[in-house]
Amino acid sequence: GAGVSQSPSNKVTEKGKDVELRCDPISGHTALYWYRQSLGQGLEFLIYFQGNSAPDKSGLPSDRFSAERTGGSVSTLTIQRTQQEDSAVYLCASSLGHQETQYFGPGTRLLVL
Amino acid sequence: TQLLEQSPQFLSIQEGENLTVYCNSSSVFSSLQWYRQEPGEGPVLLVTVVTGGEVKKLKRLTFQFGDARKDSSLHITAAQTGDTGLYLCAARYGNKLVFGAGTILRVKS
Fold it and tell me: What rounded mean pLDDT belongs to chain A?
């Protein structure tokens, strides 16, 4: 079956512009996670969606970052007024439920010039 | 300060050699996971260890969870070029997984 997909695979933008990153989770998975991976760093948790519950936004680094999950499926991570330090790989993962195995997408490589 | 410290950061070895990578913390965890990540891909779960002192084997890979559930190791026997990648340990912390910075393994032929 299809795994987690993310788009675009690569994004180059200019400082100050807004970007939207998309994640299509595995069908039927109720939990969805966003992580950020910088060079030489492990994955940094950003946000977690579980069913219809309020998302856990505790990992978002600033109010320039936001995420939505529409209809319990597709999710969009939005970064407003991008900064050079936002350059990283943004990974999405989904799982059947809370604390189940997470399956990761290939990531979106964001470069802010 | 990282909750999970991984060592070494980078390892370059010849095919056929053995190696061990470590994941250490001052915190106690109910479980710990190991992932492998290849360039351009997301991490893929290799194993979850849940019991202190537990040893799990996956072909040439041996995973151990420390008795106190604060640390773990991954041992690879007779490394192959296909083992090349980034190895990450992770532990559940509330709703999220907390990851170490990873060990980059390069196996040369």
Answer: 94
Long-range contacts of A56-60 (CB under 8 A, 24+ apart): A56/B94, A56/B95, A56/B96, A58/B96, A59/B96
CATH number given to B5-108: 2.60.40.10
> Which one of A42, A56, A58 has the shortest CB-CB distance to B88?
A42
Total of domains in chain A: 1
Choose among A25, A110, A102: nearest CA to B33.
Answer: A102
Q: For an interface test with A, which of B96, B98, B99 has the most A Cβ atoms less than 10 Å from its Cβ?
A: B96
pLDDT over threshold 70, residue B1: no
Domain residue limits, chain B: 5-108
Supply the range of the domain harboring residue A19: 5-112
Report pLDDT digits (tens) over B39-48: 899 999 999 9
Model confidence over A46-80: pLDDT tens digits?
A: 999 998 889 999 999 999 999 999 887 999 999 99
* Inter-chain CB proximity A48 and B95 less than 8 Å: yes
